[in-house]
Amino acid sequence: MTLTRPALGLAALALALPVLTACGEDEPKLIIYNAQHEQLLEQIAPAFEEETGIDVELRHGKDLELSNQLVQEGDASDADVFLTENSPAMSQVEQAGLFERLPDDVLEVIPAQYRPRSGLWTGFVARSTVLVYNTDLVEESELPDSILELAEPEWAGRISFSPTGADFQAIVAAILHLEGEEATRAWLEGIEENGTVYDGNNVVLESVDAGESEVGIVYHYYWERDRVEGGDLSDDSAQYYFADQDPGAFLSVSGAGILESSDMKDEAREFLEFLVGEEGQQILADSYALEYPLNPAVQLEKGVKPFSELQPPVVNVSDLDSEAVVDLMTEVGFL
Amino acid sequence: MLLVVGVGVAALTLVPLGYVLWTTAELGADEARDFLWRPRIGELLWNTVRLLVAGVAASAVLGVVGAWVVERTDVPGRGWWHGLLCAPLAVPAFVNGYGWVSTTHAVQSFPGAVMVVTLSYYPLVYLPTVAALRRLDPAVEEVATSLGRGGWSVFARVTLPAVSPAVLGGALLVGLHLLAEYGALQLLNYPTLTTAILQQYATVFNGPEATLLALVLVSFCLLLLGLELLLRGHRRRSRVGSGSSGDPVRIRLGRMRLPVLAGLTGLALWALGVPLAALVRWLLRGTSAAVDLGELSGAVVTTLGLAVSGGVTATALAVPVVWLAVRNRGLVTTAVERSVYTASAMPGIVIALALVTVSIRLVPSLYQTVVVLLVGYTILFLPRAVVSVRSTFELVPPGLEEVARNLGCTGPGVARRVTLPLVLPGLTAATALVSLAVATELTATLLLAPLGTDTLATRFWSDASSIAYGAAAPYGLALIVLSIPSTWLLGRLSIRSAS
Amino acid sequence: MTAALEIRGLEAGYRGTPVLRGLDLVVPDGVTAILGPSGCGKTTLLRAVAGFVTPSAGTVTVAGSEVVGRRTVPARLRGLGYVPQDGALFPHLSVARNVRFGLPRSVRDADARVAEMLELVELPATMATRYPHELSGGQQQRVALARALAPRPRVVLLDEPFSSLDASLREDTGRAVVRALRAAGAAAVLVTHDQGEALSLADQVAVMLDGAFLQVGSPGSVYLTPSDPRVASFLGHASLLDGKVADGREATCALGVVPLQTTTAPGVVRLAVRAEQLQIRSAGADGAPAEVVDISFYGHDATVRVRLDSGEELSARTPATSVPTAGDRVSVRVVGDVVAFAEGP
What we know:
Order of helices and strands of chain A: HEHEHEHEHEEHHEHEHEEHHEH
Oligomer: heterotrimer
Helix content of chain A: 40-55%
Structural class of chain C: alpha+beta
């Protein structure tokens, strides 16, 4: 036994204290509850700090984890800004009455279908639903015209998806809005029967690329990002975009909003302005995120299917109901 | 005063159980039944139970056979094999799962899940079994031999019953770990109650559904504890008389030597080689592996800070509990000590869920602070701290203090000149053990760490669970390095406790 | 009739260090004690016979059949009873199950055999259902013997079986064990470092030192006629004195002229004077003048250590009624014949 020195324990404690107290610094920071990809915010936040001199503190989590946390925290929340990957979590916080209305100059930048009628928050990037398929196992011509067909018996044992994530739940929310509760339940039951469940869209992508399932329901950027990174998970697969306003062509909107309880609302507004402004949007477009900027003045290049060629169904973000989706998915047995 | 602190600590450790029961009661029976009486829950239960049974059985077999080979045969290089057989403890289960999943997808199945958790947790059976075999008077086995029993019969009829309390205790630990395991099973895509609770949490935060699942999980843990008590029975199996534990007669492997060596090598390769090779491979070629030294060192500093604070807190709180139990035996003090032990049946996820809710509802100012995280670690690891602190305090018989008083020492003088020097090494060891456990904790940390607080485990997890294997590798290696000292300590203790 | 146990030229060692250096021993019926200080190799001898240590040379024959020699019979097939220190009862089995452990499954009247064995070792039959931790040390030893005797071995090996018992228990248990062994008709090898135990319980005593036997014989012969000064000093607490023999029947030493037990060739000898042969008398009386160094009082008698004026220190045993005090001047005299050993060349 070598740990005989009393000093050792005390020294270790002394070592630990500064680390623990480092969390509470004096200077006020703009606190962002961020459910968007961490890497994305780590590119845009420094740019914003440099431009405005406002310090930003990021706290990462998942869409519904953070939205639920905000609802629980209520007025006591530290958060100034809330960013999500998908809109249902935004709707939840909106319904709890926690958002501050955004100024018009922020709202007007983004086309109306990508923000709620209330003006309490706005979309800032969007991602398209796709079917990623293993090119050795399936021909593109075999792929269905509609995502709803994946519930048919012919797809038994061939599909995979990640139902526990907010991404998939947003897609379900769109289907629920477009097709109604009965059809959505039937569809969920069908794919539950047909598919393999994974946790995480990357895992879905990997399983398709490895040939463990033939097709997977994900968003477009997973496959595109892997292409950019070297193609470990995308070399034996390709993406298929649904067309003709099929629910499978659903475009999910990442939202941003300001909390009513914020004590740094001006700084928060500056951040949102930056986020939807051309400069911020260009940073997003150039970043590794590969999501579609929603400011029409900025275009996503990098070989991703152009925004203008997408044929998404018309869904207003105000109409997506996350609570009903969770109930329905619990009922079917995904949760 | 001491009693107040002790009762306070006990109350704290009972928070998770209280929370689960309270929330369930609040929910109402109908709603609970509707949620629990579903095929999905049946599937989770079936997955959990079969993993539990197969994992515990496989760990017990592997642990006992390994201990027997090392302690009772003439296999060459026994010291090395002992080290290698303990070593998987230094690879956190979720790092092991990562190693396997990133090598082959074949492990994403029931047999795969059983294999990976067994490789991670069999040392929990191996270590106490080795210690028990060391303590066992070899004369007992010799007498059985002289009475005409062959090697196998001696093992089955004498050795195994004699070490069975140790094996059973180890198996119980494996069971509790399996019930609480999140990271490895999530990577193996094997849904159990625990992974489902975390999914519930990610979807609907701490909704009543997560609590209901937690209730089921806690019931399992308590069931396991009860089962172990029942199997152990009241019979004493400790050695009778003092006896000398001389060198036991070792069984000559003879022609079996090569197969045994091959088996041991295979086990080491499976349990250590695969995860380590995967880490190194991804470190070298990972596409997302550009190691950000700043982030890595940041995570190391955060992890060490939390680890040391957690270790010190848990040990400091263990002292009054142990002091009461050792020096002031009574109904209340015994109850205090027991209540601490019940926390060992609480999976990290349940403790975390309880603290999230309790802190939001009762002390919102503490929610999302390090304080709650440290409370979580304390509840989670207090049983370990109490065990080591207790063994330390038993080294200081009251007689010593009486002698010191008799020689003219004042109360504080006795503490400073006699008690403290004697218990400090033990307290430091307890702190170290808890610290290292904190350093590799994943589940509770995921829920309780203030947003933006990255530990090695959570950084590893966020990368590994999104298939960024390369990015995860440096954090995985750092976790292993951090786990080596406690593993080494445990390996040594298992051998030394005998002599 | 063949001897119960016969050992010829037995050698054994650990990692190159010899522990047993060519031992020969014939164990007839009755109890043979192997007596020696700790570390002399007596436990190794017992374990070599039992089959837990592999000898490097020599043979061991049990009741006429060789178990070590041209081929080595495994320990479990040697048919030897074995009672280690502390008894080593199986802690998870009751007394009855301990005793029947060595009986083949085919034994029908196992219960009767258990009862018989318990009776043999003088334990009440009600003890059969108890567990080892509920027994006293002496009872545990008796159960251990019953367990060893149950399969009817020809020889029972006992390794310091009484060393962990209280002095008061030791004697009773020892006698009971010997009675049981005789009743069962088993020969026994008893390893001990306690000369009282060896002399009082055994029919034959083998004195062992440094891996070799110094003397094997009846208790009386090894005590009264030691063949080696080391045997004398170990067994009788004998004091060793230098002396000189002139005519073969007497020797001259610091105590004056003393009679010898056997005729000895003239020359320099080593004399062994047992404690009870030395008589302490008041100063001035007939004998060698000396001073009392210290005294150990035992109640029934006392051991008195004296320093002769010529410098030698001796131990004497005196009755409790006439114990001097330290520092007293006394004179010392020898009673009876003294054993002499010719000094080596």
